[in-house]
Here is the input.
Amino acid sequence: MMTSFNAPIHFLLNNEEVVAHEPPGLLVLDYLRRKRRLVGTKEGCKEGDCGACAVLVGDFQEEGQLVYQPATSCLIPLGELAGKHLVTIEGINPETGLSPLQQAIVEEGGTQCGYCTPGIVVSMTHAVISSRSHVTSDVMETALSGHLCRCTGYASLKRAGALMMKGWSEQEKAREDGNFEHQIGCLVAKGMLPAYFNTIPDRLRAA
Here is the structure.
């Protein structure tokens, strides 16, 4: 009788260190929803086209910088997460209240049925994380380009991005330029990211 063995997969899931024993080919979307009950990540087309299942995956690049990329979790096998940081909508939500982006979406009426909203928030948050100075309208449009929204449309979401940045002074924007980890600290201070993000680079290096 043959038995199968799945090597444990070590990674960070939001603020938690995870050792998963599931098959490495299991889709991240199915792992999140069925195994972890993190159902903020939605199942839509399951073909990588609608953006409802968007997550962030953080990994170190050759120059030693931790870089986050948006990804559709319906196309990622769990084994690809080894040694990386997986961020879902639950991991972006502030400990209390709403992030400036989430608040701006509320104020601009940027959601109706809400099914696509978690993935959109993930991608728009990535636009802020990855911007080295400030978020332009072109950057925000690119962030929205991978998402299908049938009931709300995109004009209100673009306005939400502009509203979010309106309250940030030029001095604050300038401080985000340069060192990525310092930039993360600035975004934590503004409430764009939960405080645990400050600990992720050292925790991944240790792992």
Q: What stands out?
A: The beta strands are 9-13, 16-20, 54-60, 66-72, 85-87.
